[in-house]
Amino acid sequence: MTRLTALLSATCLALPLWAAELGDDGLHKADWMRDTFKDLNEDLAEANAEGKRLVIMVEQRGCVYCAKMHKEVFSDPEVSDYIRENFFVVQMNLHGDTEVTDFDGEALSEKAAARKWGILFTPSILFLPKEVEEGQTAAESAVALMPGAFSKGTTIDMFTWVNEERYALDSEEDFQRYHARRIQERNNGSFD
């Protein structure tokens, strides 16, 4: 093998896997994202049937923070495996024209839905409850919103906090206290 062939082979092997995950819409794709008709009532029913929680992940083309999350956080097997096993993730484009049907029955483009829900940053992750009250929008129904890019620890803690339904009104541990406890536990080596 020539040195050039060896160099090219090593370079190709060293390229991050996430680099090939850009879709035609310019958004990063993960194997745990679902391609749906974006009818949120149908998506919620399907998520519930699978025993998973519905998540809406809003991203945009060229978003450096979205790229950072996909490269540094979502690519981590602990995070990706947890999301894959527990969540039904529907990706939406902040500036997209694909039709979305909100829980309240309104059909509108992705970009109009993002404005309606007050989404200003990408990535933004809306975590939905198992049941949505009739007439509510996705934003009104959300049990948590994660606006922006965060570290692996914060991300896995948020997904876990939601999955364990710690947002319930009778819970004595809000996310900040939960996250602080988990950081301390990680620092003490209490868990991975």
TrEMBL record:
InterPro entries: SoxW (IPR041737), Thioredoxin-like_fold (IPR012336), Thioredoxin-like_sf (IPR036249), Thioredoxin_CS (IPR017937). Residues 48-138 form the Thioredoxin-like fold domain. Keywords: Redox-active center, Signal. It comes from the Bacteria. Residues 1-19 form the signal peptide. SUPFAM superfamilies: Thioredoxin-like (SSF52833). It holds the Pfam family Thioredoxin_2. This is DUF255 domain-containing protein.
